[in-house]
Amino acid sequence: xxxxxxxxxxxxxxxxxxxxxKFVHSDDMTLAYWNIKAGSSLPEHSHFHKQIAQVxxxxxxxxxxxxxxxxxxxxxxxxxxxxxxxxxxxxDCVIHDIxxxxxxxxx
Length: 107
What we know:
Layout: E1 13-16, E2 19-25, E3 30-36, E4 41-45, E5 50-57, E6 60-64, E7 67-71, E8 76-79, E9 85-89, E10 93-100
Antiparallel strand pairs: 1-2, 2-3, 3-10, 4-9, 5-8, 5-10, 6-7, 6-9
């Protein structure tokens, strides 16, 4: 199936304080576009989905399985399924995430 989505037309939702996301879903993956306010924290969590995170703008500290990664523009980090991770926005950030399979909880 081919599907066109204008991300500018998607509604932004604040799923946790400071994390505003727009989501595009296919049958087997989700693409998340995040705008994150400086100082916002991502509590430690895990999910069975594989995840690839890419910082587009800003600085974000992502802690994956106890290992801290200071990420900046262009940096990409793969997170395996069921791996605990957390983080915090050092500055205002734009981050893109890909989840496989699709994140039903983001529908």
